């Protein structure tokens, strides 16, 4: 509809393949290839090995995976609860603008600054949390709550208000309207917010690196430590572990969403 | 009176959506709120349902003031334009929604749902989800859901607007049948389509610019519209400026005898099918004398199947066009022909000029 | 996703709600106030004693310049590449174009440092291209950011382009317009709001980007977020880190506010 000739299309597609392949896809392919390479001294990796992966799944590194999963579930899912709560309660009230602005704050500000803020605020009374895992969980909660709020808020705006009105006219109390109509209809959006939160939380590095205690080192922090020590191949293997875990989690949440959307 | 609106006024921000509406609907009566979009008819319905809160005035149901009650406490059946069937609930659960909200015993809910689905002919679809239904079927479910709670009042907001023309005609028949099934319920029917209003309503309330213009039994409103707006909106009447003369009124130089103009009445109202066209005896329009009616010229002819819709200009009235419906079995004048427009006095009425 | 999260245009409804229900909005707002607003206020307070020293340092000035430089270059790159890719997916579709579009969606949720990590293998001194010097230059950061943030431009563009009636392009072509003219005169005017939305979001995110810069670890490439980390964590100079954080907040929020206003105005005019 834009390019009509066969050769013209071929050229455009070739250019697309080159740009998309080299610029967007290649980095991810390279990381995956490096995870399984014993060495990489030419165009192609050599000495295929699973040693890096084995290393990435043992000892401290395995502990990091567990820490990341716990943080993602605790922080991410709390974020979904509070984000959805915020979006639902602020809709149609005069607090909508204020709630929008406050929830946008953590994404508009660099994550490093969010981390610095938590560090400054919670290294003192009345809330002394520095040095515990909770400061990491809070950092993730704060960052992901913004995304959850945005996703659910956008979905709410797309839902016709007459559903809630009709439900009320049929005698349903506000609580019943919320549980039986609004929440079920928002379920796909909430599930997708959960997927997004967990995925972003798994890969979060900026705020985490500011606040994490030695006892609570997430996967991205471990990966950074590895690259910093020059162990790039193990770092790549651990990045693959991170990617795989994230994809599996998102797929599971996506299935939930699919099931919710089907009904 | 089952429903009583008294001076109901609704503001959205600074815009006034409904201004001082007074209207009553009796049990067993169907009242249509008819008007163009933005006329306030849907707002009036929402005020009855409790979806909007009036800034002034009272809403009463069976004599009780419900103005400050939330929708959930009013017990009114509502069918909205896009039906708003809950997409995550099956047909039966949609119909059961209000009964479950009222915590009715399970057996009673099942019985009532079965009853309602049977009434609207949807028993076979009880286990389906709304998205598996056609528009007409969704509408039946929406009506069953609204009636399941045995409301004294049923509000229908443009229930046929989302359907295509054929289905709309069928559903109009269904709604007439439904009316007979629930003889004691007061029905408020919001529509912009005059044919729906005429087919279903006992009384029609014509609305315009957030105000009620006229309210009267449908036949009366059609036969003798009190205002120019009602005349043209309901049935597309022709409106011709007149001046009173001895023994009648004068239209474009032609006297229609026997019409008595009350003060302020300056428009003659006549339906398109009531005008008779005659070939002009004096081509070129040479004066009013000897004519059977008002002189004019044919501007266009559209065949509409059962009749031809002829558009004419009127000699001496610049900018006025008259619509005449000529039955298909009559001869139709050519475009450009000079004709006489015969206005039978029994089909004419005089209305107030209200800026329309 | 992020685009929605930052979406402009809250619809303010006049639908009245029973009084008293607004109290439910307080707990989530309180949460944000305690966990975000209060810490940021403390950051501003803590920064007070260190302003003069930090502002005067060349380290700070060059980092500020670098940050803006990298963000602007990256955003420009993303806009060019993203527009090209989105146009091909939308208007010169090939088998599998939808899969590619889906892939773009997924990439938004992946961590940015993966790109930087891969660069060590591609451009590292022993890697594929053996362009060791490049890896430590600001251009490596720009390239990595273009790679990572291009999907953020593509997503709103693809959405806008899918809403554009195909018939418009066909009619333009039937009137004798070549592909460039169709793009310039039919497609671009329609998708300009999406381009602006995606571009401004990308600018904001690249100003704030930290993971890529951290992982590339380029000596000569210090940005403001990087400086916050160095001062705060490596040098334990909290007040100094706070000053930079405040500057960064002002930069990000100021830009964000300006863009929201610009976009909001545009939206209003379009309606």
Task: List descriptors.
heterotrimer; A: mainly alpha; MetI-like fold; 77% helix; B: 356 residues; alpha+beta; Rossmann fold; OB fold (Dihydrolipoamide Acetyltransferase, E2P); 2 domains; 24% helix
Textual characterization of the structure:
The complex is a heterotrimer of chains A (263), B (356) and C (271). Chain A is mainly alpha-helical and 263 residues long. Chain A is built from eleven helices and four strands. Chain A folds into two domains: 6-48, no CATH class; 59-262, MetI-like (MetI-like fold, Orthogonal Bundle), CATH 1.10.3720. Helices cover 77% and strands 4% of the residues of chain A. The longest helix of chain A has 32 residues, at 59-90. The two termini of chain A are 36 Å apart. The mean pLDDT of chain A is 88. Chain B has 356 residues and is an alpha+beta fold. Helix content of chain B is 24%, strand content 35%. Chain B is elongated. The longest helix of chain C has 34 residues, at 58-91. By secondary structure, chain C is mostly helical. Chain C has a single domain (56-270), classed as MetI-like (MetI-like fold), CATH 1.10.3720.10. The interface between A and C is large, with 101 and 99 residues. Chain C: This is 2-aminoethylphosphonate ABC transporter permease subunit. Chain C: It is a multi-pass membrane protein. Chain C: It holds the Pfam family BPD_transp_1.
